[in-house]
Amino acid sequence: MSEKNEKTPKTNLQDYLNWRGDLTFEQDPFNEVDNLLLCLISYINFSRIPLLCSKREEDGLTLEVVCTLLTEGDEQRGLSQLDYIPVLRQAAATNRFATVKMFGFESVRDEAEEMQFDAVSFLLPDNSLFVTFMGTDRSLVGWKEDFNMSFLSSVPAQRRAETYAKEMAAACPDRMLRIGGHSKGGNLAVWAASHLPEAMQRRLLAAYNNDGPGFSVDLLNTDSHRRIADRVHTFVPESSLVGVLLEHAEDYEIIDSSYHAIMQHEPLSWVIMGNRFIRVEKRTSIGKMSDGAVRDWLATMSPEERKTFTDALFDVISRGGTRHTLEEIHFGGLTGGAALLRAFASADEEKRRLITDKLKGLAAEVAEELKKSAEDGMTAAKKGLLSILPDWLK
Fold it and tell me: What is the mean pLDDT of each run of 10 residues along the chain (394 residues)?
């Protein structure tokens, strides 16, 4: 049932900390909003704090101590334009998160392996361990790995997430376990939970996929995934595109956001009331349209064709491997669109033709979904009109 009300204040994570930060975990147990907060913190760059790299429980640092070691140069590395360090500082000053500790920070960029992987873990006052995985950053290798998920049975970040979760669970054998992530990190969280040894899976309290892609059917049909499926919590904003890619075995929760369209992917836009996200009944028309268009487009290509397209696209975007980040695409002061057009124009004819053909296919699927949406809208409008007309006018 929908909990959304247009008169409901659009309150977010920072409001949650203001309103409920005085409540300890003993007074109000860990909840879905706490999950999102810790996943958001995982985006911050902790590379300059070597003590956080320790995977020993006794070396954990409180959030307050971590805050004293951060500078503006350590801001979050995701795609958001918002600052996350102030949110961490706000959390560290509350009763709820004052004693939470961090450890196990890991950050890897490997262009040869086509892997971007970032993780950090939290020791919670309820004697549990929360393992978090960061989403896609601004590196091109991170974006390419996301595309690779559409045709590979597993990608390096997923395999590393599995190993990392096992290492952290083994380092804290007396603690119950939660795993979570936002965007690609949500996918990594469920992948890791699904590949834990059965004994570790028995310690799992929950796995949180916050607007992250799903999986191939092959994973969803495994006994290992079925063992933890009832503890997987997936949240997808009503107009999101990212969280509905690939397959979800679980019934995902559709939630409200104060932003529009694809910008709803931003965690600080998710609307919160008390210790829950505000639910809505269904996806928006733009959300449903994007679901159908992208899925139908992917269905037109075999895994081999998806790989060929992905390799060609990123070869063009990276200028043959000479550009490594989204910032470098803007080289020469061009806007992102102009830079991409220049890169496309300089690519060889075969790559240009391949990319053009596939993007034309996507455009056709979008046009078809727009047509369906318009037809559905007309049908709904007709039904609504007929319902209020007197019988002799029908």
Answer: 64 97 98 98 96 97 97 89 96 98 96 92 98 87 76 90 98 98 95 97 98 81 93 90 56 88 89 96 63 65 78 69 64 51 62 70 60 53 46 41
Q: What is the pLDDT of residue 65?
A: 97
> What is the rounded CA–CA span in Å between residue 80 and residue 270?
14
What's the token pair of residue 94?
């509350």
Residue with tokens 């997987």: 232
Question: What would the two tokens of residue 67 be?
Answer: 């805050």
CA 97 to chain centre: 23
Q: How many CB atoms lie within 10 A of CB 226?
A: 12
Q: Which residues pair with 109 in a beta bridge?
A: 116
380 Cβ contact list (under 8 Å, min separation 6):
none
Is this prediction's pTM over 0.70?
yes
Distance CA 182, CA 213 (A): 10
Task: List C-alpha distances in Å: 262 to 168, 267, 277.
Answer: 33, 12, 18
d(CA 185, CA 169): 18
The answer to whether the beta carbons of residues 62 and 88 sit under 8 Å apart is: no
Structural domains of the chain, ranges and CATH numbers in brackets: 13-283 (3.40.50), 290-376 (no CATH)
6 CB contacts (<8 Å, ≥6 apart)? none
- Alpha carbons 120 and 103: distance in angstroms, whole number: 6
Buried b (16+ CB within 10 A) or exposed e, 336-354: eeebeeebeeebeeebeeb
Nearest 5°: the CA angle 164, 170, 176 is: 100
Confidence at residue 382, expressed as pLDDT on a 0 to 100 scale = 47
CA distance 28 to 364: 50
Judging by DSSP bridges, how do beta strands 101-110 and 115-124 pair with one another?
antiparallel
Stretch (H or E) spanning 161: helix 156-171
Question: How far is the CA of 77 from the CAs of 69, 82, 327, in angstroms?
Answer: 17, 10, 12
